[in-house]
Amino acid sequence: MNLHRKLLERQAAGKPLRVGLIGAGKFATMYLAQARRTPGIHLLGVADLSVPRAREALTRTGWDAARIAARSLDEAQKTGGTHVGDDAGALIAHPGLDVVIESTGHPPSAVTHALKAFTAKKHVVMVTVEADAFCGPLLARKAAEAGVVYSLAYGDQPALICDLVDWSRAAGFDVVAAGRGHKWLPHYAQSTPETVWGYYGLTPEQAKLGGLNPQMFNSFLDGSKPAIETTAVCNATGLVPPPNGLEFPPCSLDDLPFVCRPKSEGGQLHAKGQVEVLSSLERDGRPIPHHIRWGVFVVFEGDSEYVRRCFTEYGVVTDPSSRYAALYKRWHLIGLELGISVAAVGLRGEPTGCADGFRADAVATAKRDLKPGEVLDGEGGYTVVGRLMPAAASLDTGALPLGLAHKVKLVNPVTAGGIVRWADVRVDETQDAVRLRREMETLHRAPKRAAAE
Question: 361-452 maps to which CATH number?
Answer without folding.
Answer: 3.90.1210.10
